[in-house]
Amino acid sequence: MRLNKNYVVLSLFMVILLNYSAHALLVSGEKMKVEFQFTPNDRKEFSYYFLNNDYHTSDYVIIAETHKGADLTKYFTIEPDTFKSIHVGEHREFKIKVNLPEKIEVPGLNEVRVWVKGTPSEGTSGMVALPVVGVRFMISVLFPYKYLEWGLNIGNMNIDEKQNVVLTLRNLGEPTIESIYGKIEIINLETNETVRSMTTNTINNLISWQESQVSATFNSNGLRAGNYRAIATLYWDENSSRQEREFRIGQLEVFIRDFTKIFQKDAINRMMINVESGWNTLIEKLYADIEVFDSEGNQRKKFRSFDKDLGAWKTESLEAYFDTTGLNVSNYSIKVTLVYEGATTVKEGVIEIVDQANVETVDKIPRKSFFSMSLINSTSLLVIVLIIFVIINLILLLRKRKKDIDPEVVENIRKVLEKHSDTEVEQMLIKKGWQKDTIKEIIRQAKAKKKAS
Fold first, then answer.
1. Is the pTM of this model over 0.85?
2. Among 115, 328, 355, 443, which lies 20 to 30 A Cα-Cα from 105?
3. Superfamily of domain 5-141
4. CA 249 to chain centre
């Protein structure tokens, strides 16, 4: 796939710009994501600070915007909402006051975002990245009728295991829900057969905002490994609703999907064995024993792969090295035996040894190979190049920020140094959020300015 050069450059520029913008302005407070339940005429107040971590003096404006649901911005007051000429390293406090009404017409989740936005200061010229940082306010409003939010939780498992199938519940309606229970069916997706039916416990009188759960125990004893579907029907008073989830039942088995079949004569060839786990648990130190036989059934070579841990349901490649020295150009029978957790999987096939082949060979068998360039495809290589490019540009950007320290900051520190030591000044700037290398540069420039005067 060929990428447009301008598109790549623009994409990299945007990544760098966004990364810079996120660090040029720092906002702190008790919570950056505030969640609460609506209460009529509720009053809340939150305090926040922002820090100019840019490399120039900036102005700032703070605004509230509706992100989801009802427009609640008129109930948000920001004090103050405008700041002028905030120098580098300076911070300011602002308060967000929320005065909710008697009623909000839109039930469900309503979200308001309060943005701290940098704005161009007077005299700013050229292209300037304007930082933006937001605080999220999530306000949940009850539905006027019965409204139950619920979820079906069932996970992958192994044969002969038990698990609780859990239905999580939350009453988001004004009325109390008097009775809740569920029925669960387990379907084998291969045969479309219902293999289990269960009924959960019952809970009563779930009031507004209350969370709870009902559950039933599922035992996979006697079931075959494979893909299944859980169908849950929840009954709550006169209402019912249904959810489905697919899951897997595993058994202790690793499948050999494929392996290298062409090798070069009189060379140490790299061999890859592709395997897939059918088990819902980590398999540790999986390895393969490989045997090579000639046409008369005589064993000609035997070697072992490196071991590897294999995660639940994962596909991996085992790495081995096959020395074909002493073997003629011909076809040979091969037997690959996986060994893991006291179990084995065997796969047989035919391989070919040729005079010349487009295969990977080495001069000697490595102790263990952790990385191979052959595993890097063009997409991965492009991603690596992009990451390196971004890192280089960020380093250059940070160096630029270090050199382009606001002269006002240097002058202020020069005056402070007349009455305080370097250590005292450094501690003061650290408390304001400055980096140590930048502080050292500020002090250096301040002292140089003092000598020059």
1. no
2. 115
3. Immunoglobulins (2.60.40.10)
4. 26
Taking residue 105's Cβ as centre, other Cβ atoms within 10 Å add up to: 8
Which positions ≥6 away from 333 have C-beta within 8 Å? 292, 293, 294, 295, 297, 348, 349, 350
> Per CATH, which fold does 148-250 belong to?
Immunoglobulin-like (2.60.40)
Strand partners, 371: none
Confirm whether 5-141 and 254-370 share one CATH topology.
yes
Q: Give the mean model confidence (pLDDT) for residues 422-450.
A: 78
Letter for the amino acid at 38? Answer: F
Q: Which residues of 261-295 are buried (b: 16+ CB within 10 A; e: fewer)?
A: eebbbebbbbbbbebebbbbbebeebbbbbbbbee
Six-digit token pair at 125?
């010229």
CA 331 to chain centroid? 47
User: 236-255 burial by CB neighbour count: b if 16+ within 10 A, else e?
Assistant: beeeeeeeeeebbbbebbbe
What architecture is domain 254-370? Sandwich (2.60)
The whole-angstrom separation of Cα 277 and Cα 283 is 8
CA 241 → CA 40, 154, 180, 229, 248, distances in Å? Answer: 31, 17, 11, 17, 24
> CA quadruple 372, 375, 377, 379: dihedral positive or negative?
negative
Q: What is the pLDDT of residues 404-425, one digit of tens each?
A: 577 777 777 877 777 778 887 7
Q: What is the pLDDT of residues 206-225, one digit of tens each?
A: 999 999 999 999 999 999 99
Structure tokens at 313: 């349901």
Q: What is the mean pLDDT of residues 157-167?
A: 97
Nearest Cα neighbor of 34 from 139, 158, 143 is 139
Residues 6+ apart with CB under 8 A from 62: 78, 80, 81, 82, 94, 114, 115, 116, 117
How far, in Å, CA of 65 to CA of 70, rounded? 11
- Structural domain boundaries in the chain: 5-141, 148-250, 254-370, 405-453
